[in-house]
């Protein structure tokens, strides 16, 4: 029995932090070797960090990566263990995203990435080229810093694999797993038994199952061992990399790491039986037939055995385990909480300031920070030295004190402020105060009417005789909107003022970061004031839908211990920027002219299914068949595109937000579209009108049970079955059908 102990890992790397990245890489190799592993794989571009972006265009980034590699090779870390390490490499003037295989202080092979990620959040073709000469190797001249350490002048470079005395090992880097003709297929048919995937894959709600299923499918069809390593944490941008390193054998998961963790280094090991792989492959006739005609990938012979004799003490095949998945509401709590912790500790700040309105969005942000504090205290109790050091610094602890409870830690880190006006209700003021108390936040109740009145007085002094009125008092829509925007923008100014001065007021060092709380649906519709409290340093919920946020509030009330969240979720969403009267109370959905549920569907159809106005209208006619007439559907679609295009300019100033949804409208990195539109959409809307005339004659009159939502339409009833992207009319209402095709 050929039993091999393998190690994969999740590393919390930080773009351009070469010293820290090297230390974490070394620690993972050390832990893998101490565990008895003979092969270790690390994340994609681990030495420099995956998120270097345009720094990859700088020669220094490549040079420093090789310098880090030289330090590893100069030590004894690779003695007796094969290490697969990610770094950028330039060959013949072309830059590649590469894997370098090392053993006993020598480099065995440099393997460039064959297929690059260039969709959604990824721009790899901006910095790298793919290796296009499949199944070809050439000779690579090593940089001087490596030659001095290893004595090697050249190494093989290209699409090849390592042939050890007892097995074959090859790479498949991140995106390559997601491609239709993935490299693991040809490699497996060519006899390679171990595929190592060093990845830089970000978290997205409901995405992990896609990743796991692809790896299980790969090893179920072809047989073999699949090792998956990933980054974990915030490496300096909007993405959170969610770890979950794992090892699979012939479709069975035998090891899985954590998806969300405070650990900077997490090593996952498993013992696998390679004879089980060869036995599996040998029993499937069609696999043998395809393997017999598969073109061979060139290999590098290595005089080294990965396998060791089996013993029943600590070297026998690992048993299959059940894959651990978090539900989406746990993901909303844990992913952004870990992202906030990384951002806070790496920014040098000593806490967060959150404008807390008592509404759903800001309350969810407060709860996520509370969850962050719970995770930190848990890690402190488990003895995580890095978390302890960071917590002591940011919490300003002295005399060997450490955080003892989440609420005590939150009191030091989270500062909330309710900025009320004459339009604010007692209910929201009270909810904000009670929630802050449950979390442990340091809370302020500030009345900003004096500042609002000062600005109105200034306006009236400039334009005598012009006095602004709300619409409920007889004012125009222009006056009404201006009065609301004044309040909203003042809150942003006060928030940043308090963030800079609160530590000074309390005689503590440092500064605070301001947290935003606009959700993805409001960004899509533009239902926010430019430069209001949606403008902040970072926003943990900017990529999360309103529907998911409300479900998270219900979950958080039960699982985080913040009971007020249930009350927040049950209250109608309102901006409270207009006076409350006997006959009028401002609410978000009436203001927007559409429900949050509808906004979610518009967002998925626009981004995930790539619908313009006409195709969105056609799909929604199917979606709402029997509930709305074609003319009613047309009006809803026109309203959405009108307000979307009017407000698109706001996306250019959107606060950097945690990416969690595939239909994020974030303009700077993800959703690249113009921000000046012909908001009348004359050609598209005219075509919709023509289709309305056509469909009116063939569609039946809406039925009462459908209109009153007593019964789902056919497309709504089919939504739970539409986990793919085949029928937009059904899938647009199912968050599970999120198009998770990014690596």
TrEMBL record:
GO CC annotations, alphabetized: cytoplasm
Catalytic reactions on record: deamido-NAD(+) + L-glutamine + ATP + H2O = L-glutamate + AMP + diphosphate + NAD(+) + H(+)
Residues covered by region (Disordered): 711-743
SUPFAM superfamilies documented for this protein: Adenine nucleotide alpha hydrolases-like, Carbon-nitrogen hydrolase
CN hydrolase domain span: 4-274
InterPro entries: C-N_Hydrolase, C-N_Hydrolase_sf, Gln-dep_NAD_synthase, NAD/GMP_synthase, NAD_synthase, Rossmann-like_a/b/a_fold
Matches recorded under Gene3D superfamilies: Carbon-nitrogen hydrolase, HUPs
First-level EC class: ligase
Pathway terms, separated by semicolons: Cofactor biosynthesis; NAD(+) biosynthesis; NAD(+) from deamido-NAD(+) (L-Gln route): step 1/1
Gene that produces this protein: LOC112294438
Name of this protein: Glutamine-dependent NAD(+) synthetase
Protein species of origin: Physcomitrium patens
GO MF entry, a single one: NAD+ synthase (glutamine-hydrolyzing) activity
Family to which the UniProt record says this protein belongs: In the C-terminal section; belongs to the NAD synthetase family.
Enzyme Commission no: 6.3.5.1
Coiled coil: none
Key word Cell cycle present: no
One Gene Ontology biological process: NAD+ biosynthetic process
Keywords: ATP-binding, Ligase, NAD, Nucleotide-binding
